[in-house]
Design goal:
Number of helices: 10
Largest sheet: 7 strands, mixed
CATH architecture of one domain: 7 Propeller
Structural class: alpha+beta
Distance between the termini: 62 Å
Shape: elongated
Length: about 675
Amino acid sequence: MTHCLNPNCPKPQNPDGNLFCQSCGAKLRLESSDHSSPTGCYRALQQIGAGGFSKTYLAVDESQPLKPPCIIKQFRPSPTADRPAIELFREEVDRLKIISNHPQIPNLLAWFEQGDRHYFVQNYIPGTNLATELAEQGTFSESQIRELLEAMLPLLHFIHHHRLIHRDIKPENIIRHPHPNQGTLSRGQATKLVLVDFGGSKYATETTLAQLGTTIGSAEYTAPEQLRGQARFASDLYSLAVTCIHLLTQMSPFDLWDSLEGRWVWRDYLLNPVSDGLANILDKMLLESLSKRYASAEVALKELNPKIQLQMPEKSAISKGKVVMVSQYFPPIQNSPPPEQELETPSPSPLNSPPAPVGWNCVQTIAQTGGKTPINAVAFSAQSRAIASGNDKGVVALWDLETGELVQQISASEQGILSIAIASDGQILASGSMDGTVKLWSLWQLSPKDLRDGIPPIPTQTFTGHTSLVSSVAICPDKQRVATGSRDRTVKIWSIATGQLQFNLTGHRDRVTCVAYNPKWATSDPGRSHLLASGSADGSIHLWQADTGELLQDFPAHSGAIHALAIGPDGKTLISCSWDRTLKIWTLPTATDNYPELRETLCPHVLPGSAVAISSNRKTFATASHDTTIKLWTLDTIEPVATLSGHSMTVSSLAYSPDGTTLASASHDGTIKLWRNFSG
């Protein structure tokens, strides 16, 4: 069968002998009208892939006696492009002509222009991609990963030398190509690894690197800066390393990242051990900070194997195969959407009268001194008009809410602080640490002046019952107990007055990632209001009768690890976010023996969510993500309100002020941002 290349064709399949589509009338072959030079005649057989602005087809070159297979890639211009599509396309062709000299890159055979569509034709690479190989043969060994890196790092050095960033490195785009006359492939045979699908590659100059670009790539393998439209050469190194840890573990990269610790935990899932040398190289390629990642593929390769000498092929004309540049006119495809009407540009405001801010805006950025230590938690202190934060160095800091001034520091742990909480009356501060301890301080006597004068909070309790890191702490609304969730798979409830363990709650099948009390705590109907919710990396949510320790419900909520939970101030709404990229909104039951009702499922972010908070005035809730953004929503209608950007790394924690007018966000970039609504 012949496949029609018209992307809007309702029935694209045609008999092989047809020259025109029997359904839409489009021409079925790509061929040159210039007979002065040799060219091909390319017929698509079937569609084998699709992206945002491209489609890929398996095809044959009918100008050759054996009709060899080839690949046709069809492109349509991006609606956001700031230059003519044909200009961008021709520049791309010129670059691909140069790099297709490389034996690990498919030959560029021809290119075509047809109306608003453009085409590359490349030779077909027989073989098996690494995703298929992983499924059929199982996890890779250290020697196989080293073979992969030693093959791909010189190739990345080559394409980066020519100012190209691939932007979509993943197992599906790396093909193990057999040598001629070689039969069925298996690891260890004489093969070469070929990198395919340069359709999303970007030409990197000083100008283009300074501009935000289109977000391209597969989210599981894509570097954080690339997801923000700021791809760099080191972004390809990140994607290659994610590919390696996926091949080593056969697990989704989403499941190999621990958002609570803010690090990759792929070593915990290895079936076969690897050396510290290789593991350290992969970890450095995976660093979130660009400045700490390898500066280039050459530097990474030198650390992997100093004996390999890089040789840069000379720039020359294409010699591996014919390249035909063809421009053809075809009538535009019918039923295409009409062009957008020009919008009238409003006149600018006078320079001496800047417009007042509208909506949610950042009013304060609080930065730590002495480097960008990741901040993992943030909370408001109502009484002292301060913000508390906990960072990776074990420091709990108190900041003036109005000025952003650091007014107090507490060395709470020798290891990082993962969670903090402040009681609703501002009198108790609790922190949970990577060392498994929970510490409490008394804040009742502190005023803003006390904090500025250096009067420290008073330590009152240290809880040491957990055997692993404490990921979450929550202070009960009655201020009589504290709940803690840990990587040891338990939830513990402690007495604030005595420091004694009241309940040890078990049942989660994986680490407990978050705990949340029902804010509408009451004594009149404890069966309904004395609820504690806990979320786990096993994707389940448990609801507990907090004053008795009884498990009320255990239900599967998400397909991935749950990262955060929040219960609304009315006690009726539960919100959960997960590594599976979904945000779920539940209505809590009025009877203790009923399960929550799923009200809404959203996928608000490019990357998984990392935090959620509900305002005390019940108007909005906020979600944060590893993609560095914060999104605000109406709580009653679940409508988007705003997207807040400004952090450069994962947003780890969110907290609303007690009056609901200010939102605080903490990030692994070492800053806290305060956001306020100027719309009333």
